[in-house]
Amino acid sequence: MEGTNMDPSSNAASQNQPQNQSQPAQQKSNIITKSIPKNFIIFWAILTLIFLYYKRYLLIYPTGYFELEFVGIAITLSVQYFRLFCGSRGNKNEASLITFFFILLCLPCLIGHIYYVILQTYALAFEVIMGVIIVLCIIIELLLAFFASIDFRSLEKAQ
């Protein structure tokens, strides 16, 4: 009996420990999965900038093209972030108007990524593969957002 702890509060605390440990793990998992598109876009921007500077020192760029491609990356990244924010907010609120803005913002993002796949001055094979994956993901998101917007619109009319 000397080795056992008879305090009921310590017993309850030891029973709650596994539950408390699993909740932060679930929250951390949810945070990671919710931010995968944003993390992928940051990954794209960093790699594209690294490759852009690599090509700048390895190859000869025509006057002004390097700066244009750099500014294009910044614009594409900012539109991409706003697009993802609108998509997330529109989905959480089930709002057709916000989802419509998401759909509209998909178009400049598609144009920007297609430029970096096809029309940029020098394209590395890895950049092309990464760009094609992003373009396909945006097209899938665009289709899903279109159908979600229709559903959200019918829900708004029903209310």
TrEMBL record:
InterPro entries for the chain: Uncharacterised_TM-17
Coiled-coil regions listed: none
Top-level lineage group: Eukaryota
Chief location category: membrane
Membrane association type: Multi-pass membrane protein
Gene Ontology cellular-component annotations: ciliary transition zone; membrane
Any one Gene Ontology BP term: non-motile cilium assembly
Any Pfam family matching the protein: Transmemb_17
Sequence ranges of Low complexity compositional bias: 8-26
Subcellular location(s) per record: Membrane
Transmembrane intervals: 36-54, 66-85, 97-118, 124-147
Disordered, as annotated region: 1-26
Name of protein: Transmembrane protein
Gene: Contig17864.g18986
